[in-house]
Design a protein that fits this description.
This protein is of the alpha+beta class. It is 34% helix and 17% strand. It has 3 helices and 3 strands; from the N terminus they run βααββα. It has a 3-stranded antiparallel β-sheet. Strand 2 and strand 3 form a beta hairpin. Helix 1 packs across helix 2. The longest helix has 10 residues, at 34-43.
């Protein structure tokens, strides 16, 4: 299995328009459970959309 590294954008380049996956939402929310992240998405509290099989949300929606 190959090691992969995350390439984070410099702080100045991060906008409120950044897209996040469910795993990234969990980390961003301080270790929230996977089911809590999905509950927020399915209840409509966090706006989401699908890109292929991937479920994405905007950072602005999570912040709100």
């Amino acid at each position: 299995m190959a090691n992969t590294t995350k390439c984070a954008a410099p702080e100045g380049n991060r906008g409120r328009d950044e897209r996040m996956t469910v795993l990234e939402i969990q980390e961003y929310m301080g270790g929230a459970s996977r089911s809590k992240a999905y509950d927020l998405i399915w209840s409509g509290e966090i706006d989401s959309y699908r890109l292929g099989r991937k479920l994405l949300v905007s950072r602005a929606s999570v912040d709100a």
